[in-house]
Amino acid sequence: MSKSDNFFEKVYEVAKLIPYGRVTSYGAIAKYLGAARSARMVGWAMNASHSIPEIPAHRVVNRKGLLTGKFHFDGTNLMQQLLENEGIVVKENQIQHFETVFWDPFTELNIK
DNA sequence: ATTCTGACGTGGG
DNA sequence: CCCCACGCCAGAA
How many structural domains comprise chain A? Predict the structure, then answer.
């Protein structure tokens, strides 16, 4: 295990905390981990999270609320269906009422 | 070593 | 709102 695994582990920690029916962004997680400039690495961590079913990767989207990573799931619409199954409305790969369902680690985890 | 690519984000126009 | 250029950094070729 290398040091980068620590970063991955942190990403998974936060991802697991995303409540049912809520979503967050790669940048929000990265910023929360103190690596705001490594938002891409959060996406990369999600890529590696396929071996860990506990990670709700479908609850992580980009800052626009767009399902940019849907092509990394098995089915064509698997990511969207997982979200809709949680009550999230998705249209044209865009999460509707994104600001309402958005889950900000800083706010929701009551960080002082 | 070098180059390119990305599940991203920000800033300017 | 959209489009574009740039910064970012790990991994693949």
Answer: 1
